[in-house]
Amino acid sequence: MKPLLLHGHHTGPNPYKVQLVCENLNLPYDLKLWVLGDGEKGVKSADLLKLNENGRVPVLEDPNTGVTSWESQAVINYLLRVYDQSHILSPGPDASEQERVDYEKWTAFLTTTFGPMMGQRNWFVNYHTVDNPDARKRYGEQCLRCFDVLEGQLAKSDGKSILPTGFSAVDCHFWPWLRQYEFAQLDVSKYPLFQKWFKEIGARPEIKKIDERIAKEKEAQGITALLAK
Predict the structure, then answer these.
(1) What is the rounded CA–CA span in Å between residue 156 and residue 122?
(2) H/E segment holding residue 29
(3) Per-residue pLDDT for the chain (229 aa), expressed as one digit of tens each?
(4) Going by DSSP bridges, is the β-strand pair 29-34/4-9 parallel, antiparallel, or unpaired?
(5) How far apart, in whole angstroms, are the C-alpha atoms of residue 30 and residue 217?
(6) Using CA atoms, how far apart are residues 87 and 208, in angstroms rounded to an integer?
(7) Residue ranges of the alpha helices (H) in the chain?
(8) Does residue 34 contact residue 41 with C-beta atoms inside 8 Å?
């Protein structure tokens, strides 16, 4: 099998999700890092726009099939459909319809609600150039509401995995976003099951492997800033 080519960002949670899936499926991949903006190595540069008209990462190129995919949910769905024949991370043929729906709805909850709320909270806490306490408050409250929802779901597995059937691609979707809770200045002390889940997933060997891989590639590719100039 030829290595996949994953286009990512050294701090972005969405490319990280794809790496988690690749690592759990033992898929070989090369990692090309981009930065924000339209300058050299920027996601809005002509080179990346040829692959993703929306100018975002992740983008996945698969030389084994000739397929190019972007948007993290679409990329992961592709990887599971083509390479997870043993259903390591996805519902198997014996899964009930409820289990399939649960997989889909919790993935959608992250990609349409929890992730975007975390992203907005991070923006207004860390990057927005004009102080906007109303926005920080609103998105902080929405993030904590999402943590409330997640805590209830984690009770079904005693904090071991988001789906009670065990570790899955759903956990891969969630973990890179929720690891940013400190960066977003969110107090999660009232969520013991989340803290248990977060610690257990964070102790998996693939997390350390990914973090080390990103740091190595960042240095090798000369990535020194978030924004392309």
Answers:
(1) 29
(2) strand 29-34
(3) 999 999 999 999 999 999 999 999 999 999 999 999 888 889 999 999 999 999 999 999 999 999 999 999 999 999 999 999 999 999 999 999 999 999 999 999 999 999 999 999 999 999 999 999 999 999 999 999 999 999 999 999 999 999 999 999 999 999 999 999 999 999 999 999 999 999 999 999 999 999 999 999 999 999 988 776 6
(4) parallel
(5) 10
(6) 24
(7) 13-24, 46-49, 72-83, 97-109, 115-122, 133-154, 169-178, 192-202, 205-220
(8) yes
**Cα–Cα distance between 202 and 106 in angstroms, integer?**
20
* CA-closest candidate to residue 184, choices 135, 134, 140: 140
Nearest residue to 177 (alpha-carbon basis) of 198, 156, 157 = 198
Q: What would the two tokens of residue 50 be?
A: 């040829």
Token pair for 186: 């969110």
Q: How many residues does the chain have?
A: 229
Task: Please tell me the distance from the alpha carbon of residue 125 to that of residue 61, in angstroms, as a whole number.
Answer: 34
- Cβ pair 23, 84 in contact under 8 A: no
Q: Which two tokens stand for residue 49?
A: 């726009």
Residues 71/111, Cβ–Cβ less than 8 Å = no
Report, in angstroms and rounded to the nearest whole number, the Rg of the chain calculated over CA atoms: 18
